Fold this protein.
Amino acid sequence: EEFERRRGYKLEEHFPEFLDASRPEATRRIVSDYRETVSEMLIDNFTTQWTKWAHKHGSTTRNQAHGSPANLIDTYASVDIPECEGFGLTDFHIKGLRKDSLTRPNFSDISMLKYASSAAHIAGKPYTSSETFTWLTEHFRTSLSQCKPDMDLMFVSGVNHMFFHGTPYSPQDAAWPGWLFYASINMSPTNSIWRDAPAFFEYITRCQSFLQMGQPDNDFLVYLPIYDLWDELPGRLVSFDIHKMDRYAPKFIKTIQTIIAGGYDVDYISDAFIKTTRCADNQLVTSGGTHYKALIVPAARLMPAATLKKLVELARQGATVIFVEQYPEDTPGYNRLKQNRAAFINIAGQLPDVDSFTHTQTFTLGKGRIIVGSDYQQVLAQTGTAAEELKTRCGLQFIRRSNPEGHHYFVSCLQNKDIDEWVTLNVPETTAMFFNPMNGERGKAQSRIENGKLQVRLQLKSGESLIIQTFDKSLDEEPAWNYPEEQTYSLSLDHGWKLEFVESAPAINGQFDIDSPTSWTELEQPEAKVNMGTGRYSIEINMPAMEADDWILDLGDVRESARVRINGNDAGTVWAVPFRLKVGKWLKPGKNRIEVEVTNLPANRIADMDRKHVEWRIFKDINMAKLNYVKGDYKNWDTMPSGLNGNIRLIPVSYKE
């Protein structure tokens, strides 16, 4: 009954075509109608009703739409907080970041993560949440340093309201490892990484305080060619889960990756949201009030006549609409196909005549423009929107938002090179502040105006991130941002170290004269190879009389996080690469004491328990699946290094204007 009401004909009268593909074109069209009907029913009869019910009871809804047999954009947009999901570890080749042999590649690249944030942006939802760190690595092996790059990927994808996957409840009197969730990561007090996790939580808080501020400021809308997907995919019921999107929508994924690599940012839009989009001051404004510079149609073959008509109307009103590789050539669906095609052809006839899409061309249509071509860099340049040099020149990942005083960026160096460059920002403001989300440092950036555009000097090491806020006012009263210039020499802290354990299970007592800062698993103590805990490395040094504006303590390879104290003062916590801290203000001439409390992972301890046949798996629900959802234990794991792993340096730096 629902199918007939929505599509205008009875599905049961076309079972041969629906089931047996005896008429290829008819089958594709009927299956597409079936998929569209399922999509509408799920949104109209479930998520929309659920959200209305929640609002009546003073609550809000949060939903992961991926995996749904529906248009993901519309499904995500029908709840209060769209939520995406990471699934696996992304290898950004960040310098110094340790790799683990037990990982799985992340199914959720930026193109997948953007479905949720796109729905939030075009519908005017303030939050995009995320199920974060699902299966980065195997149980008991995930470090905070491995979490940060994929957290940054979430942020640049539009997430501003993250959730851990997961934080299971465990009674305090439960024997370690307590009650656990079947999947990793376990972000709870039973995990040793919890000791230094507050520093990670502060990082997330600082980032989200900016990412929840203001409004989205992505450049373009990209039409999701859902009817091409519904027409082309085999079978009948299709669920758009993250594990298969590389097979379901490879061309769309490549389109998004190409646009982002070109220095632009985008949100996706569906047919339903195109219907409610308007044009104001030559910009596209969605029903959620978000502004965009143009709408891109990426090689869509099928499009409803009503959608194409609205695109033509928007162009006539002053908008810029871009068609890449081709114009839509037909309308989807089976019912009233002759009449629908006639309407489609009538609308398509109002588009500018194009002999070939090989060359980029711009046409005036009413007050707006139609741009056609096959090269994204060329067609997007025709919009007059400059690409962000953060990406094109520096290879950085970013997201930009607007606020009442200007704009702000979250920027992450998710690559294997460091950056020290003057970079142009595509905003009209004239000054900029930098904010370090790792430690709360802030300062006025070195800036200048070149060719009417704001340029800032940007200094980031591989793996680091930064928040930039731009203003159209003087910032002379603000402290200057410090740009450290490392001197050519450093102090190597190679000898004289001692080690004792602040916490350890099993317990390890006494102090060890280890001399060089090495993994504590090398101690002549059997417990050191199987323990979970925190080791305090300490050394006393004599500081030479050297000219320096500051000193950087570089801890090198830390397994896995560390709290640093200098002369009894808390100097900070390092939990992600590069494992470095500015420590000059705590150092003094002559004798200094440096203490580094390093916390390792639970991996060595749990592997030892499995080798001893300790029955710690006391749960239901899959009962601790391994990385690829198979049963098994961890007794064959090699010993993982723990603590410091050599090459500790104090580096003198100068701050120059």
The mean pLDDT is 96. Residues 24-56 form the longest helix (33 residues).
